[in-house]
Design brief:
By secondary structure, the chain is of the alpha/beta class. It contains 9 helices and 8 strands. The strands form 2 sheets. A 4-stranded mixed sheet has the order 1-2-7-8.
Length: about 220
């Protein structure tokens, strides 16, 4: 959708996955590493992985790195990165992270991340989603339980795009800002994607270094 929009409105042509793979082959590349910049192993990640796997026989080596939230270990790493990024968060403040949500997640990433914060000394950080479960409900529940002086809302998204601008920080009645402000608590929105933080970028680099080989359309552990 974004590619079509850029082409129609600005004349900007961006390769599809298949077009990019063909161009890379045309450049004479024989060993390729693809690092997914998705947040989690969901439908969009799987679509990219399947498109790439169709080219496995045309490369000497074809490897793919995991998205940010691939397993429990990477979830813990992301939690630590978020905690370090918002180290100045006060006890009477609450940080609400808005994830996208997925109907095809490999495990309950958002719920587990929220549980990680809730059961630690960083219980003033909570997680919800803009689409699918769990929605904004966990955030509103945490606000009701803690009654913070201030709520800071930030996107749990690699890029602060349309969802962050419209669904998180927009003025419409269904936006997170509007729903949280309606509780009477001071609300601030940070329009900065996860990909803008060095600690998160470092995690993507780590995943690239541990990329796994794709063989016959299946991602296998690298040897």
């Amino acid at each position: 959708m974004i590619r079509r929009k850029l082409q129609a409105e600005k004349g900007i042509q961006i390769d599809s996955v298949s077009e990019a793979m063909e161009r890379i082959l045309g450049d004479g590349v024989t060993d390729l590493l693809v690092q997914a910049t998705h947040m989690m192993v969901g439908g969009e990640y799987e679509a990219v992985r399947q498109a790439i796997s169709a080219y496995v026989k045309r490369f000497d080596a074809l490897n793919m790195g995991d998205p940010l939230l691939a397993d429990v270990e990477s979830l813990s790493d992301l939690a630590d990165a978020i905690i370090s990024t918002y180290a100045e968060l006060r006890d009477d403040e609450l940080l609400a992270l808005m994830g996208h949500g997925s109907a095809r997640s490999s495990f309950a990433s958002y719920e587990l991340l929220d549980k990680r914060f809730r059961e630690s000394v960083h219980a003033n950080i909570c997680v919800g989603t803009v689409e699918h479960e769990p929605g904004i409900a966990p955030v509103l529940a945490r606000i009701n339980a803690r009654k913070p002086r201030k709520v800071t809302i930030a996107p749990l998204l690699v890029v602060a795009g349309g969802h962050a601008v419209r669904d998180m920080a927009g003025d419409g009645p269904e936006s997170w800002k509007s729903q949280i402000s309606a509780t009477g608590i001071q609300t601030e929105c940070i329009l900065k994607g996860m990909g803008e933080y060095q600690a998160v970028r470092d995690l993507y680099v780590r995943h690239a270094r541990h990329a796994r080989r794709i063989q016959a359309g299946v991602v296998n552990d690298a040897t």
